[in-house]
Amino acid sequence: MSPIGVLCLTIQSAHIVRWNRLLGSAPDPFVSIHINDAAEIARTKHLYHDFEPTWMETKYIVIYSLTGILDLRLYDHHEYRRHTLLGETQFQLSQLEEDMAHGGHNLPLRKGSKQRGDLLVNLAYYPVSKGAGTIPEYGEIYAARCMIYGLTFTLAPGIVTLHISEARRLAPRGSTADDLSTVAQVSFGYDDAVVHATCRASGTNPVWETTCAFYCPSRAECVIVVRIIDDEDGVVGELSLRLDDLMEGNEWWPLSGCTSGDLRMSASWDVVSAT
After folding, report:
1. Phi, psi torsion values for 152, nearest 5 degrees
2. Smallest Cα–Cα separation from 8: which of 217, 250, 166?
3. Domain residue limits, the chain
4. How do residues 79-127 score in pLDDT, each as one tens digit?
5. pTM
6. Is the pLDDT confidence value at 149 over 60?
7. CB atoms closer than 10 angstroms to residue 147
8. What CA–CA distances, in Å, run from 158 to 67, 100, 147, 153, 272?
9. Distance from C-alpha of 58 to C-alpha of 155, rounded to nearest angstrom
10. Can you tell me the distance from the alpha carbon of 140 to that of 148, in angstroms, rounded to the nearest whole number?
11. 5-127 domain in CATH 2.60.40.150?
């Protein structure tokens, strides 16, 4: 399934119904983001001992269908045990078809039949552009929205769809070739945070065949970093590549930090409209 757009979700703040002090101290709240009750897409940082938390964190979520449900779950963070659900709220993505911007949207947080507070969010939906690939005619509108939501302005945001196929001729360092068991981890050049990890594959010629999609604020400045990691040997090869170079059409790319190895990877780009 191909991406159809990007949801810009800003988690502003929450009001949490206070409980009796005998039940414990104030919560360490964070918000977990899901679509259609699937695995967590992203989360905010957790704050400390706060019934009125303010995050002002913006997350960009690649959307594949507007028939789904955005599920926002408020948790009390615990270091050594399972987080406690304080309340959750839902937003029908179909509402974005009629109005692509919902600023200052106050959503009720419920647990069971009781309301446990409110969550204040901003939502803005940017569909994939059907044009030729640039959106200068939308520049003023997009700049205005960026100013409202405190985002960085660029004329060419889009969605990167990355396909990681396989590697070949990996060179093990400490373990034998038969013992190699590797994953490919993807991050961006400006941030070491892992945004995608493949499943584990064995041998010196591992095959992953995985696809992932990400929002990118500027194609010209985007750098894709892929590290191939083995359980015992650590990083057995890595690749740092500008998205523009990746889009030139080559499939096999030489790995660095190793004596041999290549990665087969490709990407596609969809411009996001800001109307």
Report:
1. -80, 130
2. 217
3. 5-127, 158-271
4. 999 999 999 999 999 999 888 888 889 999 999 999 999 999 999 999 9
5. 0.80
6. no
7. 10
8. 21, 17, 18, 13, 5
9. 19
10. 12
11. yes
State residue 77 phi and psi, 5-degree precision. Answer: -75, 135
Residue with tokens 């983001």: 33
Lookup: tokens for 190: 């400006």
What is the DSSP track for 178-237? GG-EEEEEEEETTEEEEEEE---EESSS-EEEEEEEEEES-GGG-EEEEEEEETTTEEEE
What 8-state DSSP symbol labels residue 115?
Answer: E
Residue with structure tokens 């190895």?
261
CATH topology of domain 158-271: Immunoglobulin-like (2.60.40)
Structure tokens at 106: 């106050």
Residue 56 falls in which region: left (phi positive, over 0), alpha (psi -120 to 50) or beta: left
